């Protein structure tokens, strides 16, 4: 869809003229732009293209679920259709880079995680990036993580030719012994699900917003692990988080690496073999 066509569609959907339009990087083959409506609202827009026709109503659903079920700051959804999503633009100055911002993030994420939820999984399947994320309701975390996260993503990567067969065999061997390595949480927690640096927006040493969620009910440790993979948060975040809700011993030393096999597999499927090295290293450390 050309920019002019996209502008016309946004204007028709919201009943206001769109002005001062600029491009907005949104990834995954989607078109993105930001602009100011004639009624004063500043908006962020995502639109499907020939490269990617993922259903954007699912992203809208996940944002609205976070607004409904948590106190996380997320953009308000103004319009959603399968190939068009219009949200409030969140003014920001980039990602987390100060101790104060890390402390604020820890308060928000700890509060999110401390509220018990009904079961692992979710009421529907969701998505991480452009990839499907199955969420059948489950009573126990470790079997859910094994079957619906680790093995599901590894097997899909193998089917697509992205993951060598030997890697899948090693992951399956680890999966058969996960009970020896992971812990069940006290209760399921709502997770944002995709806490990499670009999805956490900061302004004036405060978290301005969380975007691009991949929600489900799970163990907080998988969320915290993901935040270490690209350096989203550092020691200041974890000190503040654990002051509110301490982690069981062994998270940083072992379980963090196991949980990060899942986002590494996501990246293997999306971006290719450059992420195989991290998977190999973790498996070797665990003896697989």
Question: How would you concisely characterize the structure shown here?
Answer:
42% of the residues lie in helices and 17% in strands. With 288 residues, the protein is α+β, with helices and mostly antiparallel strands.
Task: Explain what you see.
The protein has 288 residues and is an alpha+beta fold. It has 2 domains: 3-88, Phosphorylase Kinase, domain 1 (2-Layer Sandwich), CATH 3.30.200.20; 99-285, Aminoglycoside 3'-phosphotransferase, Chain: A, domain 2, CATH 3.90.1200. Helix content is 42%, strand content 17%. It has helices at residues 3-14, 56-69, 99-113, 141-159, 165-175, 220-229, 235-244, 251-259, 261-271, 276-285, and strands at residues 18-23, 31-37, 42-47, 77-81, 84-88, 126-128, 131-133, 189-191, 200-203, 206-210, 216-218. The chain has a 5-stranded antiparallel beta sheet. Strand 1 and strand 2 form a beta hairpin. Helix 3 (99-113) runs parallel beside helix 7, helix 6 (220-229) packs across helix 8 and helix 9 packs antiparallel against helix 10 (276-285). The protein starts with a helix and ends with a helix. The model has no long low-confidence stretch (mean pLDDT 95).
């Amino acid at each position: 869809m050309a920019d002019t066509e996209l502008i016309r569609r946004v204007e028709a959907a919201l009943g206001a003229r769109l002005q001062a339009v600029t491009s907005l990087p949104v990834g995954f083959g989607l078109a993105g732009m930001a602009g100011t409506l004639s009624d004063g609202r500043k908006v962020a827009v995502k639109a499907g293209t020939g490269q990617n026709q993922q259903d954007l109503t699912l992203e809208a659903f996940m944002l609205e679920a976070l607004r409904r079920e948590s106190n996380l700051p997320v953009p308000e959804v103004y319009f959603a259709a399968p190939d068009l999503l219009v949200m409030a633009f969140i003014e920001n100055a980039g990602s987390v880079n100060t101790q104060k911002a890390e402390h604020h993030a820890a308060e928000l994420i700890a509060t999110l995680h401390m509220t018990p939820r009904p079961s692992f999984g979710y009421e529907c399947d969701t998505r991480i990036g452009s990839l499907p994320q199955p969420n059948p309701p489950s009573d126990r975390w470790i079997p859910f993580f094994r079957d619906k996260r680790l093995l599901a993503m590894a097997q899909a990567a193998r089917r697509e030719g992205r993951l060598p067969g030997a890697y899948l065999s090693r992951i399956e061997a680890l999966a058969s012994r996960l009970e020896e390595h992971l812990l069940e949480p006290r209760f399921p927690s709502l997770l944002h699900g995709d806490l990499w640096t670009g999805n956490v927006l900061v302004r004036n040493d405060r978290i301005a917003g969380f975007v691009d969620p991949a929600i489900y009910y799970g163990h907080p440790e998988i969320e915290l692990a993901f935040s270490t993979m690209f350096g989203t948060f550092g020691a200041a975040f974890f000190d503040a988080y654990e002051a509110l809700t301490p982690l069981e011993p062994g998270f940083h030393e072992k379980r963090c690496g196991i949980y990060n096999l899942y986002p590494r597999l996501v990246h293997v499927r999306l971006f290719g073999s450059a992420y195989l090295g991290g998977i190999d290293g973790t498996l070797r450390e665990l003896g697989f």
